[in-house]
Amino acid sequence: MxxxxxxxxxxxxxxxxxxxxxxxxxxxxxEILGLxxxxxxxxxxxxxxxxxxxxxxxxxxxxxGKEMQPNAYDIxxxxxxxxxxxxxxxxxxxxxxxxxxxGLYVKDKALRNQYVEDAIQxxxxxxxxxxYPKQLSGGLLRxxxxxxxxxxxxxxxxxxxxxxxxxxxxxxxxxxGIKTLRNQGATIIYTTxxxxxxxxxxxxxxxxxxxxxxxxxxxxxxxxxxxxxxKVTVEVLDLEExxxxxxxxxxxxxxxxxCDGVLCITYTKGKNNLVELMDxxxxxxISYNKIFSERPTLNDVFLELTGKELRD
Length: 312
Ligand SMILES: Nc1ncnc2c1ncn2[C@@H]1O[C@H](COP(=O)(O)OP(=O)(O)O)[C@@H](O)[C@H]1O
Ligand SMILES: [Mg+2]
What we know:
The structure is a single chain. By secondary structure, the protein is of the alpha/beta class. It is 34% helix and 28% strand. The strands form 3 sheets. The protein has a 6-stranded mixed sheet, with helices on both faces. A 4-stranded antiparallel sheet has the order 2-1-4-5, covered by helices on one side. A hairpin with a 2-residue loop joins strand 1 (3-14) and strand 2. The chain is elongated. The structure holds adenosine-5'-diphosphate and magnesium ion. Magnesium ion (MG) binds next to helix 1.
């Protein structure tokens, strides 16, 4: 597969801070690459370097096989960007805003009308075409921001935290829209600090911390880095101490805790752990309410690798 973006040994310093530290990665044609990291980890800086909006002290960036430059307009017209901050014109309606941004690249009026309609449909703003930005909720405004960035059907789409502080309905709409764009052939870079989004959206993930890559791979590959492999939770009233001790001695058990009627067991390896536990509870005549098993989340992986939580 071709590399649409190739970042090599990128280092970017603001006066006293090294925001990006010898970063190298590539984005393959047709994939959704997730850049996942807490606030301040360098996601926006990386994107602004890729777009040549920031200069950097070391490294090189190629986009569509060519060196990226501030004046590389032939490359830039094939890129759609959705910045972290909403940037639309308050005095233009929804449809006029999208038409304006699309018009920067698509001069043919008939073709542009079609593209604008496609963008409105993609983000589900059909009922709000004549609204002004100030009349839209936060979630709808973000959807407009996305429509403006992608209406000209760019081959590479870069979205910087497009779902921060949006309602669940808009979030689902945005994530579905991004999948649609990928299915239509676009290559996508998606930054977020929400690990749940990366899990449902991205083909490949790079986890950033302090401007460095601390892990990368598919979600499954990243999860296999975790020492912990399974978490079992059981709702059970009044569990005696001796049962806790016996469960601690089970095969593969890493840790057992019991708090407010909830028993939590973590296992280093998984397979039949749940069945074994259920057999044991039955044998000991311990009645329980809910019982369920979970795999580790990307947050667990981040916690193991950095010693801190990804969540904010
Ligand atoms: N214009 C700037 N001047 C100085 N420091 C900055 C500037 N922009 C970002 N930084 C710093 O660079 C680091 C990375 O920031 P950023 O790329 O915005 O992270 P993220 O997008 O992951 O939240 C942070 O420590 C941030 O404070
Ligand atoms: Mg940012």
